[in-house]
Design a protein that fits this description.
Elements: H1 2-5, E1 9-10, H2 20-25, E2 30-33, H3 49-59, E3 63-67, H4 73-83, E4 86-88, H5 97-106, E5 113-117, H6 120-129, E6 133-136, H7 151-163
Parallel strand pairs: 1-6, 2-3, 2-5, 3-4, 5-6
Bound molecules: magnesium ion.
Length: 164
């Protein structure tokens, strides 16, 4: 279990505070980005301004792709359109199929691709199972700010510890 639970970069930051030059230094060319909790609060349709600006800057440097487990095509396509990004909804992470298809579509080496997400048991595990890099970010609240205490992540980290 150790390898699938490993986080390459546990940033402890919201996505919009991730430095693009640090991503470049890690030789990352493409980013697969989770939606709920990572780009927007899962109960909100509003994309925070900081997130929008981060995406606009990142688009100049990386190829981006949204990959969400949310079954609502309506929700995910609306967010993807607003950011003008390709997307998959209902992606069933940590199952590999959809993520592998996206990696194929991007057409870059897995070592140059990273997944960014707020959950270990979906985003991080699927990233490791597909041999791409994994970046854990802080979940966003309704105001677009990182939540201070993430009980789910605490539990996931605790379980990860015992599975090692
Ligand atoms: Mg998420």
């Amino acid at each position: 279990m150790r390898s699938t639970l490993k986080v390459n970069w546990d940033s402890n930051l919201p996505i919009y505070a991730i430095s693009q030059s640090d991503l470049k230094k890690k030789d990352i060319h493409s980013l697969l980005i989770d939606v709920d909790g990572t780009l927007v609060n899962r109960k909100s349709n509003m994309i925070p301004k900081d997130v929008k600006n981060w995406i606009i800057e990142s688009k100049k440097l990386f190829s981006l792709y949204l990959i969400s487990n949310n079954p609502s095509k309506k929700r995910i396509s609306k967010i993807a359109k607003e950011l003008n990004l390709r997307y998959k909804y209902n992606a069933s992470k940590p199952r590999k199929k959809v993520t592998l298809n996206v990696i194929k579509e991007i057409g870059k080496e897995p070592k140059n691709i990273a997944i960014i997400g707020d959950r270990i048991f979906t985003d991080i595990i699927v990233g490791n199972r597909c041999n791409i890099k994994t970046i854990l970010v802080k979940r966003l609240n309704k105001d677009g700010l990182p939540i201070k205490f993430n009980l789910i992540l605490k539990i996931e980290k605790l379980i990860s510890y015992f599975l090692k």
